Amino acid sequence: MLDRDGYRPNVGIVLCNAHNQVFWGKRIREHAWQFPQGGIKYGETPEQAMYRELMEEVGLKPEHVKILGRTRDWLRYDVPTSWVKREWRGSYKGQKQIWFLLRLTGRDSDVSLRATEHPEFDAWRWSDYWVPLEDVIEFKREVYQMALNELATFLHHSSRRSGGKPRKPAAVSKKQPPIVTPE
């Protein structure tokens, strides 16, 4: 399902924990890290697609999370022609995404990368909210930056309500958090 401009509707998910760290998934059999995301099926709302993708990719149910906010409008990125299947060239440009910011209300142990027969990730970790974007595939970096910038206001609002202080973007640290892999 493409819109008239050649963009596939999609959702992106920024999942944060109580420390305002974000879930960072490693693509299966690759050394590429990303946030959960996926296409919106015909007849689905962005919120319904977000919950489906969250279950498929991370194994979390609606009762494990709280929605803190979402982007106002679609954020778009173009996919390089070399990445597009030959039969789609000329009609497919890329993805348009509604991004959601979620708070994990469950436990880390609720995360299951093997919730479906076709897992997206083979490892995960918590990272600083202002995750180093050089780990993101180049053509998605700008949309990640736009999503994080827009959603940060919801994160700070949520922190103030719960008595915590909003965190400013920290300098990028080379120290990596531990990686969690499925059993």
Radius of gyration: 16 Å
The gross shape turns out to be globular
* Parts with pLDDT < 50 across at least 5 consecutive residues: 162-177
What integer is the average pLDDT?
87
Main sheet? 5 strands, mixed
Q: What's the helical proportion of residues?
A: 10-25%
Distance between the termini: 36 Å
Total strands: 8
**Portion in strands:** 25-35%
The helix/strand series, from N terminus to C terminus, equals EEEEHEEEEH
Alpha-beta content class = alpha+beta
Helical element count? 2
Report what the structure shows:
This protein is α+β, with helices and mostly antiparallel strands. Helices cover 19% and strands 27% of the residues. The chain has two helices and eight strands, in the order ββββαββββα. It has helices at 46-58, 141-161, and strands spanning 7-16, 22-27, 33-34, 37-39, 65-70, 75-78, 94-104, 121-127. Strands 1, 4, 5, 6 and 7 form a five-stranded mixed beta sheet that branches. It has a three-stranded antiparallel beta sheet with strand order 3-2-8, with no helix packed on it. Strand 2 (22-27) and strand 3 (33-34) form a beta hairpin. The longest helix has 21 residues, at 141-161. It is globular and about 45 Å long. 29% of the residues are buried. Residues 162-177 have low confidence and may be disordered.
